[in-house]
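Section 3.1: Structural characterization of target chains.
Under the original work plan, the team committed to producing a structural model for every single-chain target entering the pipeline before any wet-lab resources were allocated. The record below documents one such target. The sequence was received from the expression subgroup and is listed exactly as submitted; it comprises 449 residues.
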Amino acid sequence: MIQTVGSVCSGIEAATVAWEPFGVRFDWFSEIAAFPSRLLAEKYPTTPNLGDMNNIPELLLQKKINPSDLVCGGTPCQGFSLAGWQNGLNDDRGNLTLRFVDLIDANDTVRLNSGLTRCKMFWENVEGVLTDKTNAFGCFLSALAGLPDVLKAAGGRWPAAGVIHGITRNIAWRVLDAKYFGLPQQRRRLYVIAGGTDFFPENVLFEYHDKDFPDYPSASLEFEKEGHHFEVFREYADCLYSAYGTKWNGNAAAYNGSLFVVQDGRIRRLSPLEAERLMGFPDHYTDLKGAKKTNRYQGIGNSWAIPVIRWVGIRLMGEQRTESIIPANSFMLLSRQTPLPSQGMFLNLGKNELIPLENGIVLNCTSIPEDCTFSTLKDIVSPDAPEDIYLSPVGCYGIVRRKNERKLKINPRLEEVLLSISSQMPFNEIEKRSRIQHRGRFSENSENG
């Protein structure tokens, strides 16, 4: 039974929002950033924030805090993301992944000395950890499993789904996409669950496949809502990131338009309220008195997709089976198994696959759950957007100019809207204003540079 939870790298506490309705108690948080720490203090005043996670193992061993039934966390993803240059364990933030294992070990030491079983562990991160050049994920898995040697993935690429039965813990992982869980956001994240060798985390993360996957539903991209006319550029958004709204949107979403909204003929970014909805948080969850939009965007973009975490929590907290849903010595899986010490094994479940087992059973290892829920951007937009998130004619033309300089593709309707708005200002005035900020190397080498 999971009754208590310890949260590491807590951020704005998606885990509490998702799991507190199940009746679990959060023993402690661990967060050092100023804005999330303030949010935790205001919204959850009875739960202590222990600050730096590096101090928690000693606090546990000294019995200054209680060992939890479940420890969850998402150690900083920047060390494994493209935005962080994928430095992995060469980045101090990436090294916190291994420090997280030290914390789990300390929690279990106290639990085992008290006659309790090992805790359950839940960890979330970006897909980039699977291809990290420092093999951070292999180090993480090996340490959790208690293996004497570090596992290495074939070709340096870990599968998007897998299982390890180890010496001290069993582990399972799966990439899931939030857009199939009721959020209009394409957000693929890696979810890892572990526990003692008498626990089978694959029962939580994987499902038997018995129905066809539905297509993502189409919907009108123009609509009326609360007396305003809206237009979006597709039914769901690209992944919301922590720097959203604080600088020019230089990723793919700037060109496919999925993180822009046209409201009453003007184009803008998502508001903080809409960003909250895009992640599944309650309205105004981050709207603290005097809070800057920058802090709100960062806290929301760094957090977890609530419906996915709720789905995991329901399955994790209800799991009581004593056998794995994956048949032992399955002939169909022999080619995917690698033996490990002490009769353990690593099972490679591939990337986004439906895997046939014996007796006509099919294992769903894809990023899509068996029971999908859908919504669209119409469900999250709100007319009360602040004025300063609308794009000016200069900003609109800047996106088109960068697209031309870098020979990138752009959503045709988005380009039409951007050019229409930029035409409201004389071109020489746009050029004058855009030169206030230094342009990058593409502009400097272009004919207009």
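Residues 10 and 241 are 17 Å apart (CA to CA).
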